[in-house]
């Protein structure tokens, strides 16, 4: 998006911090993170990390975020904390992207409450389809009860290998179920692609 001249805020809401390490590999230990924002310890503007790209800004994460999953359970309006913080600054960006945890927890709930559209990544592997039912049920429940603006933008196939019969079969099932919601583009199973984050390189 930055290459298209769009200003983008990336919120890393996963305690593993993969989005942070991939985009800002040299981040200092003292850098305030999304944990500080959620706990009310810092203003969100104090925690934003600008990159070498003028139009890309990161709200980083680290392992402290694991504690937030427990601490937030006793907080008032816990499902909308992230939304309230993002609302303060979202007018500064063309896009706000939230990288959420793969499991459904209080952090994911915050992401889905703050979001307007969702991109669902699906590995083209056997167990991926089994997990989709629970994901969709959670999304529809949140849309019905908390965030009526929430929509599925699309489904993105990952780890796809056109030479693998299982990948092709899973892809066909996704196409049958999601129709036009299944993105034409996909992320292939590729060694160099998998290694790119370790070098701080973009996949594109």
Automatic annotation (TrEMBL):
CDD domains in alphabetical order: ParAB_family (cd02042)
InterPro entries recorded: AAA_dom (IPR025669), DNA_Partitioning_ATPase (IPR050678), P-loop_NTPase (IPR027417)
Residues covered by the AAA domain: 2-152
Gene3D superfamilies to which the protein is assigned, alphabetical: P-loop containing nucleotide triphosphate hydrolases
SUPFAM superfamilies according to UniProt: P-loop containing nucleoside triphosphate hydrolases (SSF52540)
PANTHER family: P-LOOP CONTAINING NUCLEOSIDE TRIPHOSPHATE HYDROLASE, PARA FAMILY PROTEIN CT_582
Protein name per the record: AAA domain-containing protein
């Amino acid at each position: 998006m930055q290459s298209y001249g769009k200003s983008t805020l990336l919120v890393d809401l996963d305690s593993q911090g993969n989005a942070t390490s991939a985009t800002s590999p040299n981040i200092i230990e003292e850098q305030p993170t999304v944990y500080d924002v959620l706990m009310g310890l810092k203003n969100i503007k104090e925690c934003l990390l600008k990159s070498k790209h003028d139009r890309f800004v990161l709200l980083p994460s680290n392992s402290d975020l694991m504690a937030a999953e427990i601490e937030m359970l006793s907080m008032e309006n816990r499902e909308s904390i992230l939304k309230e913080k993002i609302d303060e600054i979202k007018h500064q960006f063309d896009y706000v992207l939230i990288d959420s945890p793969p499991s459904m927890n209080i952090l994911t709930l915050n992401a889905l409450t703050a979001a307007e559209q969702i991109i669902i990544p699906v590995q083209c592997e056997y167990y991926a389809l089994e997990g989709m039912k629970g994901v969709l049920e959670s999304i529809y429940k949140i849309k019905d009860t908390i965030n009526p603006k929430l929509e599925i933008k699309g489904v993105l196939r990952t780890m796809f290998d056109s030479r693998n019969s299982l990948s092709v079969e899973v892809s066909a099932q996704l196409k049958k179920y999601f129709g036009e919601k299944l993105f034409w583009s996909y992320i292939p199973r590729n060694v160099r692609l998998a290694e790119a984050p370790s070098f701080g390189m973009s996949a594109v």
